[in-house]
């Protein structure tokens, strides 16, 4: 694994870097076109991976690849989102049922008539009866914990799913769980994933106070670095 090469890659061409940062500021473009560009940094589909960033060319291709990757990540995250949504729903339902006897008919009618009043009334009751939150959260805890576990699993598996899709040039390949898990549950990929996580935290800390473009810089740098590392792990895992 060439970690130093991956960390240096975003800085091999300042014009491409500037373009990536600017495009990362634009909603939708940042997770489609820019992600497609970062995916090309993986070097998959090429005889030899370059130490430099790819070219900003064939934007339609980059856009579609990035869009496909976003869909893959969403599908992988869907079980976690459903479980977390159910957990939140159960917790809120339990709290509301416990608070119902404490609300007057007039208050309930006001809550139904105005979202603002409803929010104020709920906050007031919760402040007065804060101890009701714990039982409600405890009821939903198993689903919430399972949802977080699935979210972590999705975050771990989805990069390899995206690269399998890129490598095979087939969207269905992203859901070939046999290949995806075989390539993901390896020491090389695990180290690449942890390195990406650490780099992301460092970038967030360094650029947190940079106005307007701080987040865009962090996102673009991390995208190129992460896909470069993941691409290496993908190629080196049979």
Key features of this structure:
single chain; 238 residues; mainly alpha; 74% helix; globular
Strand composition percent? under 5%
Q: Uncertain regions: pLDDT < 50 for 5+ in a row?
A: none
SSE order, as H and E?
HHHHHHHHHH
- Our Rg estimate from Cα atoms comes to 23 Å
What is the molecular shape? globular
Largest sheet descriptor:
none
Structural class: mainly alpha
Number of strands: 0
The residue-averaged pLDDT reads 85
Q: Helicity level, as a percent range?
A: over 70%
Tally of structural domains: 1
Q: Given the structure, what is the number of helices?
A: 10
Whole-Å distance between the termini? 15 Å
Please describe what this structure looks like:
The chain is globular. The model has no long low-confidence stretch (mean pLDDT 85). It has helices at residues 3-8, 14-24, 33-40, 59-99, 105-113, 115-128, 133-168, 177-184, 187-207, 214-236. The relative contact order is 0.16. It has one domain (3-236). By secondary structure, it is mainly alpha-helical. The longest helix is centred in the first third of the chain and has 41 residues, at 59-99. It is built from ten helices and no strands.
């Amino acid at each position: 694994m060439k970690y130093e090469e991956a960390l240096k890659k975003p800085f091999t061409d300042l014009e491409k870097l500037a373009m990536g940062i600017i495009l990362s500021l634009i909603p939708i473009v940042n997770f489609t076109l820019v992600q497609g560009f970062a995916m090309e940094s993986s070097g998959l589909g090429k005889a030899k991976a370059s130490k430099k960033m790819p070219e900003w060319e064939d934007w339609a291709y980059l856009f579609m690849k990035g869009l496909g990757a976003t869909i893959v990540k969403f599908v992988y995250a869907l079980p976690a989102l459903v479980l977390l949504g159910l957990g939140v729903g159960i917790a809120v339902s339990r709290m509301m049922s416990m608070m119902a006897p404490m609300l007057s008919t007039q208050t309930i009618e006001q809550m139904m008539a105005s979202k603002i009043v409803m929010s104020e009334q709920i906050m007031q009751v919760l402040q007065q009866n804060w101890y009701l939150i714990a039982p409600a959260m405890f009821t939903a805890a198993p689903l919430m914990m399972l949802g977080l576990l699935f979210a972590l699993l999705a975050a771990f598996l989805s990069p390899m799913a995206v690269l399998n899709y890129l490598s095979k040039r087939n969207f269905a390949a992203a859901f070939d769980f046999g290949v995806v898990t075989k390539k993901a549950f390896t020491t090389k990929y695990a180290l690449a994933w942890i390195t990406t996580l650490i780099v992301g935290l460092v970038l967030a800390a360094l650029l947190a106070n940079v106005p307007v473009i701080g987040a865009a810089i962090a996102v673009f740098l991390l995208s190129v670095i992460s896909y470069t590392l993941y691409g290496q792990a993908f190629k080196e895992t049979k």
